[in-house]
Specification:
CATH topology: Rossmann fold
Number of helices: 13
Structural class: alpha/beta
Number of strands: 12
CATH architecture: 3-Layer(aba) Sandwich
CATH superfamily: LarA, N-terminal domain
Distance between the termini: 41 Å
Largest sheet: 10 strands, mixed
Strand content: 15-25%
CATH class: Alpha Beta
Helix content: 25-40%
């Protein structure tokens, strides 16, 4: 699809709630006074059973505000490859069931794959059959019209022409994202909850990002345009090198749930370090990774390891969490 024309002039955009939300994050207006930081909780379940992991991690995290809301669900369907190349259908199915049990008024999955065509990826993964069985809607972002996108101007970002994301995501009543645990072999270094944002952009724009030396900062900047209320990271299997579709596979045997993208990705990076990963992961402190560092600058979540609290509900998970805390403590 072509990149939508900008529907608003900048000064008109600034009057919208979306514009007011993103500009402080990009530092385009007055300085933002520091606010007290809360601790970001990340629920961790040690398991090789995805359905069990999703269910138990959600019980631990106890998300609020789902009842009566129209839920938008963003998975990782970069391709149709086996998890962690893409979201596992067991993870997706259990997540939909859990959202229903918590009173979701409706659930709509939205995604744009790349480079394969989104519809083909969804067909390969039998998503339309799953949607029929579990009663959720499916939106192919590649098929959206020009009026279905919100435009976010450059501000102080590294996006020279600004960027668009689907309006259904930017204005979602309740946004849930689910990601995998993996490295990224094409410049992103890692791909977890922050990098899910790339699948929200029109495909032509992604080429600009992948050619930029600021790619990892640009990933973080996309995240200033929206805020998920719930994040599920499936780390039952992981790529410790390569990615995003294929890579060196290891058993992570972990499921994470949180609402802070920085905190979730930080714990995910600690898992990769614990498993043993490539030099781009092992040789850099977690909060010095460019995706994380830029997201911290934008005020998107935890600013240091001391603001990340890993919560568990059983002995095996608690023992593993203690190892991860030691890795996180190094920065």
């Amino acid at each position: 699809m072509r990149i939508p024309a900008h529907p608003l002039h900048r000064r008109d955009f600034l009057r919208t709630s979306a514009g007011l939300a993103i500009l402080p994050a990009f530092g385009a207006v007055a300085p933002v006074l520091p606010t007290p930081r809360r601790t970001s909780r990340v629920a961790l379940v040690r398991t090789s059973d995805r359905a069990h992991g999703v269910s138990e991690a959600l019980k631990l995290f106890a998300p609020r505000g789902i009842d009566g809301r129209r839920v938008v669900l963003k998975p990782n369907f970069n391709s149709a490859d086996e998890a962690p190349g893409s979201t596992h259908n067991d993870t997706l199915s259990q997540l939909v069931v859990e959202l229903r049990e918590r009173g979701a008024r409706s659930i709509t999955l939205g995604e744009s794959s790349g480079p394969p065509r989104t519809r083909g990826v969804m067909e390969q993964k039998a998503i339309f059959d799953l949607a029929s069985t579990l009663r959720f809607g499916v939106v192919d972002f590649e098929a959206l019209g020009d009026d279905d996108w919100d435009f976010f101007p450059q501000g102080a970002s590294h996006w020279p022409d600004g960027f668009h994301i689907p309006r259904m995501v930017a204005s979602a009543e309740y946004l849930v994202t689910t990601c995998c645990l993996k490295t990224h072999g094409y410049g992103g270094v890692f791909t977890m909850s922050l990098k899910l944002a790339v699948g929200l952009t029109p495909k032509p724009v992604r080429r600009t990002m992948h050619r930029s030396p600021h790619m990892r900062r640009m990933i973080a900047e996309l995240n200033a345009a929206y805020a998920p209320q719930l994040i599920v990271l499936d780390g039952v299997s992981a790529f410790t090198d390569g990615g995003p579709s294929h890579g060196t596979r290891k058993a992570g045997n972990v499921m994470l749930v949180g609402d802070d993208r920085i905190a979730v990705d930080a714990v995910g990076l600690a898992v990769l370090k614990e498993l043993g990963s490539n030099p781009a992961i092992m040789d850099r402190r977690i909060f010095e990774q460019e995706q994380i560092a830029r997201a911290v600058e934008l005020g998107l979540g935890a600013t240091s390891p001391t603001e990340v609290e890993i919560v568990t509900g059983d002995a095996a998970s608690a023992a593993y969490a203690e190892r991860l805390r030691g890795i996180l403590a190094l920065g």
